[in-house]
Design brief:
The complex is a heterodimer of chains A (285) and B (314).
Chain A: H1 2-22, H2 24-41, H3 43-46, H4 78-114, H5 116-130, H6 134-145, H7 149-175, H8 179-186, H9 191-228, H10 239-246, H11 255-284
Chain B: H1 2-28, H2 37-42, H3 48-58, H4 64-76, H5 90-125, H6 130-142, H7 147-161, H8 174-208, H9 211-218, H10 223-245, H11 247-260, H12 266-275, H13 279-307
Helix pairs in contact in B: 1-13, 5-6, 5-8, 5-11, 5-13, 6-8, 7-8, 7-11, 8-10, 8-11, 9-10, 10-13, 11-12, 11-13, 12-13
Classes of the chains: A mainly alpha (285), B mainly alpha (314).
Chain lengths: 285, 314
């Protein structure tokens, strides 16, 4: 009995593992992503200094055995700040994308399945938000909400849900014309059940692929806001703010701005590889 | 022609609806937070007199639709409000700074295409080979490079170390203006070309897979001739579409890039306004940016239909 229950689940796990190892882009991306998560979680273990402690007298020190990546203008250890910055940037980005995905998917399902006035109202809102350049609306929202992690998160979600709503709505409109939905309806299943159990699993895959590239764009937005001084406020270690502070010392200590930028590039590459890999798998199947 | 005019009319109507939406979103921004919008606008240090003045100007004690009506009627008369900091009309500030932003967008887009087209052509015609893989990996890694960092690195290498171009600012003469736009445009292009290369590669591969390319090859035309005369020409329409899709990104990226290079454009104006809590400017610039995107989208749509007569006009 136990064997028959555990059987399909573990086989599904094996198939997933096989899919990951057979797609080099996906496996590389997953490994990089795991590394990033490890740095974020294990930041206190991997670093020897607190990220915001100022070692007076040890300012603008070049990389050495004591300070692997050197120190910044306030004598703070750059490796510590880059490692702890992984937490800040990944936390905001993942939260923003996850909530946007959830809200967008719910509204997209509603718009696509209910149709009529609900569809019109939701999609008009989507159009209005999409009419603005992403950064412009985010900056305007940050003005109203104030700077800081919570307001950035709120601003990113207010703008972010629209893409998911549009993608999921499109997939739902396509799905309702398919025979399997008609068949599910004919067996007398309730609308909610058809929507959640039959349409959602098919509609969400495109949204998940998009989410991978969206995490990257959201991280770039957090970094840009931090650079401009509109984002996460000091002394919280954040990659964009670090690039901004380091840009003043570019001629003497280029590492202060460059190491956090490299962290952004590596993070971006990890998410792009995973996104590309998932897209390849979906096309292949 | 008749069909084209019909199509153009429909596009224009939908653009007007979007324009209405843009003003609505910008109007609703200050009502987003519970509490007194005047307090949100002016920040915690505003005096009672300043708050009262904002209440009067915005009609904040009237119902919200009356406020929106007042706001719209002012906008239609070209009144975008008065800057709290500069004490001059926002429209005047925006008009003074529109040209650098427009030039930056234009040069940035052209440079991005100059970078992306050859790379995409090489990748598509050598699909699956080593050159294609390298270009794919490069553009994948390029997706994650923060433009702000590209900007400061270009300043360091080209302006400070090599001393070839100005570090920042806009100069005072037309040649100096153009000179100061080179590095910012290059920054935008480097930020944009990975996305463009990736979409163009897919578009070109689709074109190169088609029957007329096979027949051109069968007639014994050289690979280069097939690519340039038959492949590229048919890939222009998808290129325009890809460029149109990325226009939001292009326009938005000017905000940060202008700030790095201290270009006197509307992006710098907006960032400074946020830092000095000057809401009328933020509002006015947001509307202008929305209109810019709308105009460019309409433009690319029209170019697209002109290039591709077979396109379904719906």
């Amino acid at each position: 009995m136990i064997a028959t229950v555990a059987g399909p689940a573990s086989r599904r796990g094996q198939r997933l593992a096989a899919a990951v190892t057979r797609t080099p882009t996906l496996s590389t991306g997953v490994v990089m992503l795991a590394g990033l998560l490890a740095v974020a979680v294990l930041a206190p273990v991997l670093t020897s200094y607190p990220p915001d402690h100022q070692y007076i007298g040890d300012m603008l020190v070049a990389p050495s055995g004591a300070h692997w990546l050197g120190t910044d203008e306030l004598g703070r250890d750059i490796w510590s700040r880059v490692a702890y910055g992984t937490r800040t940037d990944l936390e905001i980005a993942c939260a923003a994308v996850a909530v946007s995905l959830a809200i967008g998917t719910a509204l997209g399902l509603l718009a696509g399945y209910v149709g009529r006035i609900v569809d019109t109202v939701i999609m008009r809102c989507v159009d209005f938000v999409m009419a603005f350049p992403f950064y412009v609306l985010i900056i305007a929202l940050v003005f109203v909400l104030g700077s800081g992690s919570a307001s950035i998160l709120l601003a990113l979600i207010s703008v972010g849900w629209v893409s998911y709503a549009r993608i999921v709505r499109g997939e739902v409109r396509l799905a309702v014309t398919r025979p399997y939905v008609a068949a599910a309806r004919m067996t007398g299943l309730s609308s909610i059940r058809v929507l959640i159990r039959h349409i959602l699993p098919n509609a969400i895959s495109q949204a998940v692929v998009y989410a991978m590239s969206d995490v990257l764009n959201v991280i770039l937005a957090i970094v840009t806001l931090g650079f401009l001084g509109l984002g996460v406020q000091p002394p919280t270690p954040e990659w964009g703010a670090m690039i901004g502070e380091g840009s003043a010392f570019l001629t003497t200590r280029w590492g202060i701005a460059t190491f956090p930028a490299l962290a952004v590039v590596l993070t971006g590459l990890a998410f792009s590889l995973v996104g590309d890999g998932i897209a390849q798998r979906l096309q292949g199947d | 022609m008749r069909r084209f005019l019909d199509y153009f009319g429909r596009r224009l109507v939908s653009a007007l609806v979007t324009l209405f939406g843009i003003t609505l979103v910008v109007f609703l921004l200050i009502h987003l937070i519970p509490g007194d919008p005047a307090r949100t606008l002016l920040g915690p240090h505003a005096t009672a007199g300043e708050l009262a003045a904002v209440h009067r100007e915005w009609g904040l004690n009237r119902p919200i639709w009356v406020q929106y009506g007042l706001y719209m009627s002012r906008l239609l008369r070209g009144d975008f409000g008065t800057s709290l900091f500069y004490r001059v009309p926002v429209s005047q500030l925006v008009l003074q700074r529109l040209l650098p932003t427009l030039l930056l967008m234009m040069f940035g887009a052209v440079l991005a295409l100059v970078l992306a087209l050859p790379l995409a052509a090489v990748a598509a015609s050598l699909k699956g080979r080593i050159a294609d893989q390298v270009i794919r990996l490069l553009s994948l890694a390029g997706l994650g490079i923060p433009s702000v960092w590209i900007g400061i690195v270009l300043v360091l290498l080209v302006a400070i170390r090599a001393n070839l171009l100005p570090v920042a600012g806009y100069g005072t003469s037309v040649p100096a203006h153009l000179e100061s736009l080179i590095l910012p445009s290059l920054t935008i292009a480097i930020g944009m070309f990975p996305t463009l290369t990736r979409s163009l590669r897919v578009g070109l591969i689709a074109v190169l897979d088609s029957d007329y390319i096979a027949s051109a090859r069968a007639r014994g035309l050289s690979a280069w001739r097939v690519l340039v005369r038959h492949g590229m020409r048919n890939a222009i329409a998808p290129t325009v579409t890809v460029l149109g899709l990325n226009i939001g990104y292009l326009v938005g990226s000017t905000v940060a890039i202008e700030t790095i290079f201290a270009l006197p454009g509307i992006g710098t104006l907006m960032v400074q306004a946020v830092l000095s809590r000057d809401f009328p400017i933020v509002q006015g610039v947001a509307i202008v940016y929305g209109i810019l995107v709308l105009a460019v989208n309409l433009g690319t749509d029209l170019v697209h239909t002109a290039l591709d007569p077979q396109l379904e006009l719906t």
